[in-house]
Amino acid sequence: MTPKKATEALKILAGIENSLCGNMIIYDGLRASTRTIRLRPRRPECKLCGEKREIMELIDYVQFCGMAANDKDKGLNLVPPNERIEVKEIEALRKRGGLIVDVRTEVQFEMCRLPFETFNFPLKKLKRKPELLEEIIEERKAEEVVFLCRKGNDSQLAQVFWKEHTNGKMKTSDVKGGLYAWQEEIDSSFPLY
Q1: Which InterPro entries does its entry note (predicted)?
Q2: Most buried among 3, 16, 23, 176, using CB within 10 Å?
């Protein structure tokens, strides 16, 4: 048992309120830093840990997800560099009325998101119902759309799709490096998964 675990056990036994219960400590060995993130509570409807559990044993990740666990680790280069923006440019884009569209799944979006308004519009939904995003753009009177994802791969796929869908009539770009770049360059405490 590590000293941290022992200290936490003693705090719980002593009834001290500020234990790390419900939190996770993340240690980054490369940067020699730690951070603590609050875990969301169990959901009663969860199939794994909820009241009516349906999943009782480990399942095959590839079979369940339809892809390998490392499928997003390779960087794609689908979009020319002049059609991509750096994370440092997001604020300027927001000020000139650009719309930031996060193309990750809803579950991933719930885990972490940027600290300002972004629209969650998963890539699969974008490809199925692009007219819904058109409505948001029209409602917001956005002149530019920037796609964002975890590492900058799905956002490129979204940008290529959107450019084809709109015949290039609207200025689009994606955030190079995605949320990983945000954590690296803007906010080192931003939670990643």
Answers
A1: Rhodanese-like_dom, Rhodanese-like_dom_sf, Ubiquitin-activating_enz
A2: 176
Q: Taken in order 15, 17, 21, 22, is the CA torsion positive or negative?
A: positive
In degrees, rounded to 5, the angle at the alpha carbon of residue 173 between the alpha carbons of residues 134 and 183 is 115
**Statement to judge: residues 85 and 179 lie in one domain:** yes
| Same-domain pairing of 102 and 167 | yes
Which residues span the domain enclosing 173?
A: 81-185
State the greatest distance between any 2 C-alpha atoms of the chain, in Å, as a whole number: 65
Q: How many CB atoms lie within 10 A of CB 134?
A: 14
* pLDDT tens sequence across 125-173: 999 999 999 999 999 898 899 999 999 999 999 999 999 999 888 889 9
If asked whether residues 24 and 113 sit together in one domain, one would say no
Number of domains in the chain: 2
